[in-house]
Structures are given as C-alpha cells and as structure tokens.
C-alpha cells in the first residue's frame, strides 16, 4: 500500500493545492480532520463543518451538503466507495489533481493564493450570499469595500436547525409548548444573524424544506414516511401547506423577532421553497396567515414554476430566486446527487439557460427583482448568455473570491449579455 495513489473527482474545491490531515471515520466532529463518509447527509452536519476536507464515496456536485461545503470552502473529493476502507491515519489530498496519497508527500509546497477569475464584483449586481452560519456573513463582510455590493444573505431554515441541534419534526409533533420553543429558538438564531449584518443588508430565510431522507437522519421520535424518490416527494411548499404546527411555529418566529428587534425585524424576509405555480403560492400565503406587511419571495426551481413565473409575480411574490441547481436536475432528469449521471447534469445546458432567461424576463416585465444562483465556474458563461438579473447568488467562498478580485474596473472583461 506504500505510495498508493487513489484517483478521485473533486465535487467542491478549496484554496489549497494540497492538504494533509488525519482521517475521521466516526461521523462525529473532529476539528481539522478529513471526514470520511460513504455519502454526505444532514446527520453529518456537525462533522462536516468541523472538517478541513471531506472524502466520500458517492454524490454529486450540487447536493445540499456539498453546497454547504462549497459555501464554507471545504473541499470534497469523491472516490470509489471500495477505496474508503483504505483511508485511515494520516493522508495527503492532492486537491489540484483530485487524488489521495496514502503516505505523506514531503514535496508538497505551500498553498497558493486563491485565484481570480474574469468576472469581478462589478458584474454581480445586488449580490446575495448563500450562507450556513455566522462565519459566512463575517467572511463576506470582511472582503473590503466590495462587501457593500452584497445586500442580502440567504439561509435555509434546516441549516439553522442543524447548527442549533434542533429536530424540527420532533418539535412540530411535540405539542404547543414544543412548537413555541422551536419558534423561539429559530428567532434567536435569526436575531444573532441580523447583528452581523451591515446597515443596508438583509437576511432571506428559506422556509423549512426538509426532505424525508434528510429528516430521517435528524429525527428521533416522529414517524418519517419512507419515499421512493424523496427529491420529488412531500417537501417544500407542498409540505408547508399541510402543516398547521409549522404555521404556528412561524408565527412564534415573527412575533419573537418583532418583540426583540422592533423595526429591525423587517430586515428578515421569507421565501417559499420548491414552488410550482401561482395557486400554490397564494394558498400557502393564506395558509401561513402572513400579514400583508411581511414580504414573501418565491424560489423558481421547477419547470412548472418557470412556466408560471408571470402569474407568480402577479400573485404577490416580492422577489424571485432562481434555484439553478434544482432546475438542472428537473429539466434534464439527472439527479444532482448521483455521480453516475454527472455527465448529464449540465449547468450550462441550453434548455436550462432558456428557463432562467424566461424567469429574468418575466420578473423584469413585472418589476419584480430576480436573483440567479451561479456556481463560480459558471458565472462568466451566465454573464455572457443571460439577460442581466438584479443580482447573482453564490456560495460564500466563491462569492468572496469574486469580491476580492483586484482587476481594475477599466480592465474588466465586458460580457456580451443577451439582453
């Protein structure tokens, strides 16, 4: 086994060329370790965020946990699952070439500085950072003058739950006291996030969207349905519509925020996940019993929602977020978490770009702001092929790299946008 090299595939990159560390196979958090796991799942959240790198045996580039790693700058390397058994003790990751060295590499040099791409902060519009915790806000807001270009931070409610050790299904099934306790806990987390914002920034909360397979890994008491295809199952807006306990918890969140933050509570906006059409949007707003003063934006991440964008705008959506990662898998019938169909999962596919273009144009016609998610590697392509949205959404590490670009405005590549 001496000198063996295991070739893999980088799902998310980092800022170093090589990384040496101790393998962690326990599933528990070990600071600075290399986490080894067959698959990344919500139950590994604490272990993932504590790790310097992750090696897994399956999954795609845009799974939820992979996106968490991308936002934190944690490299994720996928190898053949049969090779995981050999990853013990200390190993060296060759991140430039997507490989693992099973003995230390004494020739490994110092880590290079992060590179800069052609797009710069000038191209981002009103940028939105996809975050998982306080550290991500601090990372973005420490990027110098360009941090002011980031006017919003987007976070999933399930990430708040994982970071706080909350089990949402258990709480929502636990009666009125547990529901209220859950709502207060979420509000307290949000309040702490608001304290990290710059004066003109806001926080966008994507309402709870916990798929059954992810819920099963963090639920101890509640029964979770076993679904043959959780990605297309009972989650997002369709789950929210059927949950009165969640409605009550959300009211506790909003009431607590108003009590504790006063007018500053208006800096927290809500967003509907996994939406299909305007009827669903209107039904959900009514079901949640939201005051008219509370803005509710919509995630456009299914082909049906793309088709219904003008009607969703007319139904009162305050803003549109284009979830490109989900759009790709639904347009191309390619599971974003399945590496066996990675060649079919194309974030630049013409059909996907046509869908994004339709959303941007519909939002522009209705006067509704539109923000488009982009991987760092796709940003230049989107800038040249899409009409200009109001802003781009990016994971923290990739956004920070763009914000810190030192390219002079006069020398910035002028992208020929399709307007």
From TrEMBL:
InterPro entries membership: PEP-util_enz_mobile_dom, PEP-utilizing_PTS_enzyme, PEP_util_C, Phosphohistidine_dom_sf, Pyrv/PenolPyrv_kinase-like_dom, Pyrv_kinase-like_dom_sf
UniProt cofactor(s): Mg(2+)
Superkingdom of the organism of origin: Bacteria
One Pfam family, short name: PEP-utilizers_C
All residue ranges annotated as the PEP-utilising enzyme C-terminal domain in the record: 197-372
Domain PEP-utilising enzyme mobile: 30-98
UniProt KW keywords: Kinase, Magnesium, Metal-binding, Transferase
Keyword flag Magnesium: yes
The family this protein is said to belong to: Belongs to the PEP-utilizing enzyme family.
Database matches in PANTHER family: PHOSPHOENOLPYRUVATE-PROTEIN PHOSPHOTRANSFERASE
Protein name, per record: PEP-utilizing protein
Native organism: Kitasatospora putterlickiae
